[in-house]
Amino acid sequence: VGSEMCIRDRCKQFGFDADWRQAQLALIGLTEDPRELALELHQQVLVDDVRRQIVDVFFAHLTTHEQAGRLIASFDPGHLKEKQIGYLETFGVGCREESYFESRARVGVAHARVGVPLGLYLASFGVIQELLLGAITDRVVDTEKRRQMVQMVLRLTTLDIALATEVYHRARIEDLGRSVKHLELEQEILREQIEQDALTSVSSRTSLLRELEGAIAKAGRTGQPLCVVMADLDHFKDVNDNHGHLVGDQVLKEVAARIKAALRAFDLVGRYGGEEFVLLLEDTSPHTAQQIAERIRLRISSEPIHTGECNLDITISQGLAVYREGEDSSMLLSRADKAMYRAKQAGRNCVSE
C-alpha cells in the first residue's frame, strides 16, 4: 500500500486523475494501448547498445550548447546518463498507466527544481525524438512496421512534452507559492518584532504610540474618557549595578507580567523605554484608572521578585494623566511623565495625578 501511495503522489499533487490522463491520451491520438508495438520497439530498436549510443550522442549534442553544457557540468554526467538510459528503458511501456504519468511528472519536477529553463528542457525532447526516429529508420526494415513505430514515437514524445510543460509550470507555481508563504511568514515575524517588545512581550514603543494616536482620535470624536499612566520602576539602576543586567532583565519581564495580569482584557501596556511602561486605558474614568494603577502597584510591591540568585523587593511609581480635548500624544505623555515624577518626589511606590 505504501509503494502504491508513493506512485500516486505527483499525480495527486498535480490533479492527473484518470479523466485528465484519458483526455491527454485522446488529444495526441493514443486512444488504444500501444503495448505490443512498444514491446517490439524495445526488442528491435531500443536494445541496450542502442540506448547507450543514443544517450551518448544526446549528451554530446547538449554539451555544444553553452547553457546546457554548464548545467550538465554542474552535476555528475555519468549519473545523468544513467537516468536518461532509464528513461529510454521505460519509453512507451505502460504509457496509459498512472505510474507512467507519475514517472514523467517526477522528472519534470526535478528539472524545474534545479532550474533547467523550460525552452532548453523542451528542446531536449526534440533531440531525443530525432535520435529515436533515426534508430527506427536504421533498424526496422518492414515499411509498415517502421511507419507505425515512427507514429508511436511521435505521439509518445508529444505526450512527454505535454507532461513536461504541465508539470514544469505547476512545480514552478508551487515553488513560488512556497516562496510567497515564506515571505509572508518573515513579514509576520518582523511585524511581531515591531509590534512587541522583545524582552517583556508587551507592546513596543512604536506600537504603543500608534495605538495612543488612535485612542486620542477616538476620544476626540466620541468624548469618552481616556487615561494614560506612566509607570517607572523605583531604584532600577541599583538592580542593574548591584546584580547585573541579566537580573535586571528578569525583573523587567516579571514586572511586565504582573502589570498585564492587573489590567483588563482591553487595556494596553507598552514598554516606553528602559524601565518605563505606559498604560493606555480607553473609555476609563480617572477614578477607575486610579484603581487600576493602585492594583498594579500592589501586585508589584506585595511580593518579592525571584530571580534565581536573589529575591528583590521592587516598587513602581506611576503618574496618571486624563486626556484633554485638543491635546496630542506628546502633550498627554508629557503630563503623565510629570505626574510620575511627582510620585517619585512624594516618596515613590505611589500613584500621582
Low-confidence stretches: 1-7
Q: In sequence order, what are the helices and strands, one letter per element? A: HHHHHHHHHHHEHHEEHEEEHE
Mean residue pLDDT? 90
Quick one: how many beta strands? Answer: 7
Radius of gyration, CA atoms, in whole angstroms: 37 Å
Termini distance? 74 Å
Structural class: alpha+beta
Q: Any idea what the shape is?
A: rod-shaped
* Largest sheet properties: 5 strands, mixed
* Total of helices: 15
Instruction: Tell me the strand percentage band.
Output: 5-15%
Order of neighbouring strands in the sheet with most strands: 2-3-1-6-7
Share of helical residues: 55-70%
Describe this structure in words.
With about 350 residues, this protein is of the alpha+beta class. Helix content is about 65%, strand content about 10%. The longest helix is centred in the middle third of the chain and has 53 residues, at about 145-195. It is rod-shaped, with a radius of gyration of 37 Å. The protein starts with a helix and ends with a strand.
